[in-house]
Amino acid sequence: MINDEVARIFYEIADVLELKDVEWKPRAYRKAAQAIESLEKDLVEIYKNDGTKGLMEIPGVGEALAKKIVEYIETKKIKGYERLKSSLPKGLFELMNVMGLGPSRIKVLYKKLNVKGLKDLERAIKKHKISHLEGFGLKSEENIQKAIELKKKGKGRFLLGNALPIAENILTELKKLKEVNKINIGGSLRRMQETIGDIDFLVTSSSRKKIMDAFTKLPDVSRVLAKGETKTMVILKQGIQSDIRVLEDKNYAAALQYFTGNKEHNIALRSIAIKKGLKLSEYGLFYKKNNKMIPLKSEQELYNKLGLSYIEPELRQNNGEIELAKQNKLPKLVDYRDIKGDLHLHTTYSDGNSSLIDMINEARRLKYKYIAITDHSKARAIANGLNESRILKQINEIKKLQSKFNDIKIFTGMEVDIKSNGELDLDEGVLKKLDIVIGSVHSGFKQSKEEMTKCLVRAFETGLVNIFGHPTTRLINTRPEIQFDFNTIFKTCRENNIALEVDSFPERLDLKDIYIKNAVDNDVKIVVNTDSHHTDHFRFIKYGVSQARRGWATKKDVINTYRLRDIKKFFNIK
Ligand code: DGT
Ligand code: CA
Ligand code: CA
Ligand code: ZN
């Protein structure tokens, strides 16, 4: 779909216009971009069926913007946008992706310090020029420095949530080829790592050339880096690299294992093979003494032949999984199909883009047994957070809707802000009326570890919180984690029946795998939620589940795999 491309361009136009001090227009572009992003239909389809008129029915899209969309559909370019872009130094655009630097601050840096790109910015920080600017200060200088470091570390890596849909599309295309025997995604993507360097495919076929030709001609391919007999590498239009390997059927099991990795896991397996008088490569498992290949039907068989139980791809990082596989003691990981409900959902009551009834119906379509509606509380004014009277109104609406459906339980709830002093943003009275309360930190990120720990403990000891939402508040590659003492928080959560959330939103994936493992080891319960702001976001659940799996969580560790009555019991809901 070109929807994402158009939305991205509209966001960029908004940024450029803001840099150029144009009023109003940036807002209009952003609104349209948002609407386009969450559109279910393809813009091309809409245009084909209903022309410019059809496009103008998209919220926020008037005649002028509809024309721009048509121009993009027809020419893959928007001339006005190219012109606008070339009127500013190129480097300013890379600054846009540094967290904490919106167009308004970039404007100041550009005008006052002539900062034209990342290099200029780093130089200015070194000379402490930024702290002297109005509205910046020492703290923001430090934060910009940190954001640059984060950005550099994540350079060239894609979010799992962006890479997987691209890979799945290509997979569908390739599967249509009759020359393809077996095919699978490999690499970090099969391991469901939170960020992805490139998209790896493994194919078995007896006509390699046909596969390579088809692969390089895929509509998503923008450039071919190398085309060989067994390996081809391309750059996709989305900017990510993709590699394909084509081997024979007899190599499949060993090749899939090898190309799934990770490297450290592979190296450890290889040395186990050597100790057994075997040799392991991407082509197969062989006897060392005569180079004879041991036939393998599956990865499972390969692991078993090495004296290990099967290891799920999400666990393969040489992080202790091999030792446990030797003793047949690996935990049975929570499964993607185990999830019975989603306990963090926003609606148009606050900053969601879908209505309460649409969210409920989407959950019913997914056959969920229960959900919780958890809009923002009043402190989040920019998110249209709810005050006490609007909450009561929502509770009433939920009650009315609940009486219509007996296939799903709709819990009332709130995502309530935990303020810097540890107070909750809503009164005890109203919080007690709700089934499920998520406590989240949305401000005061920079408190010290001690202050933050104290603040969280105070909030949790009220006994009013059921879920600690997106606990570290990090945004992958852009916002660092908040600091608190995990052991103290684990203890407080255990004592107050609070579950730690794994937020499935692609840029959050909060908690990280190591923290999940730690929590589970400490007997703290996990809840995998999507934090959906649109019906389209429910699908993110698989990224949260993969994160939980990479954190070694089992079904019993994840409370939203429980039956309705057990989850009620856990949270003490009547
Ligand atoms: P990425 O692409 O950076 O997100 O991470 P991966 O793990 O997908 O790495 P990639 O694409 O370079 O290689 C795919 C797999 O191939 C990797 O997971 C393990 C295997 N592999 C690559 N290089 C080596 C190596 O030097 N030794 C061994 N044993 N395996 C390797
Ligand atoms: Ca890869
Ligand atoms: Ca690769
Ligand atoms: Zn939140």
What would you say this structure looks like, in words?
Helix 1 packs antiparallel against helix 2. The protein is of the alpha/beta class and 574 residues long. Helix content is 44%, strand content 14%. A seven-stranded parallel β-sheet has the order 11-12-13-14-15-16-17. The chain has four domains: 2-134, DNA polymerase beta, N-terminal domain-like (DNA polymerase, domain 1, Orthogonal Bundle); 158-247, Beta Polymerase, domain 2 (2-Layer Sandwich), CATH 3.30.460.10; 252-326, DNA polymerase, thumb domain (Beta Polymerase, domain 3), CATH 3.30.210; 341-571, Alpha-Beta Barrel (TIM Barrel), CATH 3.20.20.140. The protein contains 24 helices and 17 strands. Helix 19 (428-433) links the parallel strand 13 and strand 14 (436-440). The longest helix has 17 residues, at 3-19. One calcium ion binds next to strand 4.
